[in-house]
Amino acid sequence: MSERRPTAVLAEDEPVLRAQLIELLAGAWPELEIVAECADGFQAMRALDDLRPDVVFLDIQMPGLTGLEIARRASGSHHVVFVTAHDDHAVAAFEQGAVDYVMKPLSAARIATACARVKERLSAAPPDLARVLDALAARAAPARSYLRWINASLGAEVKLITVDEICYFQSDTKYTRAVTPASESLIRKSIKELLEELDPESFWQIHRSTIVNVAAIAGVSRDFAGRLTVKLKSRKETLPVSQPFAHRFRQM
In this structure, which of 59, 98, 133, 143 has its CB flanked by the most CB atoms within 10 Å? Predict the structure, then answer.
């Protein structure tokens, strides 16, 4: 019986860099089977849960969930290699000795070194990354400022709405609906743009077309098929939760 091939998940939001990483890994570690290529943090989190790879290559900065958030889930279950453009992130992680890293721009020599180190660790249980991730968080860039208000069209009127008033955002053809307890307005920002500008602690994507204000959630229900639906405090309609985002409500 042939020996099982080691498996890996790749999480990198830039298609060109992702393709380059795949090519370099094929040269440095031909036996490695790449079981998923992920363009954002939510895809990566789902791949970890569904596929249980031996190794995960994580870009630190990704849309949806960051590489650091995914690494917390991977801790103790998967070996982690960070892919980063930030030297301070890389050094902090590597000094802890629990993970390896690859700097951008990618090089064949550095990929080969990272693969060799991971191979040496595969026979051992993946390490607890809590100290590594705490060190990375401590060295992270200063807290960024998030979107605080939006200009929205309400009929012929343009009004200023603070994001705290918003119950949810939902894409609507060329525009995005900004829904408050008492009104609906149209804005020209896409869901993708909003995800990059809103505080991820306060606004969660629950569907590819929907972002909900966590403070506006009254509860979550599950139907006979296991599908989740968000109930709102100040609106009668409910919002479906698609499977890639269901993990957010496991503790609710």
Answer: 59
